[in-house]
Each structure stands twice: as structure tokens, then as C-alpha cells.
Amino acid sequence: MQQLKLALIQSDIHWHEINANLAMFEEKIWQLNEQVDVIVLPEMFQTGFTMKTSLAEPMNLTTFKWMKQMAAQTKAVVTGSYMVKENGKVFNRLLWMQPDGNFDTYDKAHLFRMSTEDQFFDEGKKRLIVEWKGWKICPMICYDLRFPVWSRNTNLGYDLLLYVANWPAVRISAWDALLKARAIENLSYCVGVNRVGGDGNDIAYNGHTAAFDPKGNSLCSSEVDEIKLLELDKNELLRYRDKFPAQLDADAFNLSSKSF
Fold it and tell me: Is 55 helix (H, G, I), strand (E, B) or coil?
């Protein structure tokens, strides 16, 4: 499959209200009037970005089952992150749920110490690349965006770099710049899905959900509560990589503390 259609859901989030958020996002998903391949929700989409880890769920409970149901009913991958407790630890975990019930997970590797996330959550150690409809996709979470080594597209191992986030308005210029940079330096599409509104800590969010092609051209952008539909073209990506194979001149190195 050469085209990949994404539904990017940029939304306000009810603070700490899991059931309210699941109902709200379900309603938004059912507003889609055409078939898509991937439905993308923000970081911590069912609570907001919070350190209240008592809201963390075990795997295979409410949010997991909801995402499984949404994926099955829409025949699309549903992805976003939420708090998961497992073996005495708590993770900011992205769930990549396929329509057939198979799934993958990615635990946020870079915890945002400025909000004490590193004191409440355990960091992920392994990067994830998933294959879906002929595309290789590398999903990451918010603060990961600031660390180019972690997102490095070694040997063109992925076609799309995908970030889910709760990125505040006060630092939105960094979000805009880094999404574009990650696309250019990795010879890939780069998509970031953020939220809007305000949270229980009086932090404001202004969205800027966006997508860039490997040349750094903007494909979409939004600052309001809405769903953006985006279609990516694999042939265009391959043609550009063939014409501009910068990966052949990349520096070789290995990570010591985390793994690809």
C-alpha cells in the first residue's frame, strides 16, 4: 500500500476523568466519515498529563479494552498513550492497537523531569518500529522529540516518525522547529499530535498538531479542537530518498543505555 491515511485527533482533555475522555474520543472517532488507516490520540489522552499515578491501569483493563474495541469497529489502528501499571512499575505507555486485536507497546524513554515525571514513572528502554499496510512507523511520546539520537532513522528503518504529546503553548516554538528537523534529518515523514485547552495544573495548550515531509515541507497544521485527515504517499518518499540519499553519509555510533 503506497498511501497511508491518518486521522489526527487534536482535542481538549477532561482532567483526570477517564470515562468522560473515553466517551468524548469515541464520539470524535465516530465523526469520521471515511475509512482511515491510523487514528492518533494525544499523550495521556484519557487523563491529561498528570503525575496522579493512582489513575494508572493494568494492561487489559478499561482503556486497553476501549482501544481494542475502537480499532475493531473502525478497522484502523488506534494509538495514543496512557498510564499503565505493571510489575510494581508505572509507565507512560503508548499502545499501538490493530483491528485484529494484536498490539505493540512503547514506554516513554525520556521522562519530563521539569514536571517530576521521572519521579513517578519508569522510563522505557527500547524503541518500537511497527509495520502497518506496507509502512514502517516509529511512534514516540512528547519529550522524546527533543532527543535526535533516540529518533535516528538508522539504515532508513522507518518511513514515518510519529509523536503523541501534551506540549504546552509556552514552548510551542520548539515543538514546531523540532518536528520539522526530525523529518529532514531522518529522511522520513514526521507527524506530531498535540492537545488543546487547559489542564488541572493551569497549563495551556494550543495544539499545533502538524506533519512534515522529508524536505521539511508542512503538510498540515492546526491550533483548534478538530480532527485533521492526512494522506501520506510512500512513492514520493522513496523518490526523494533515491534522489537525495543522505543516509549513506551518516555517522556510525551505538547507544549504550537504551536500545534500538
Answer: helix
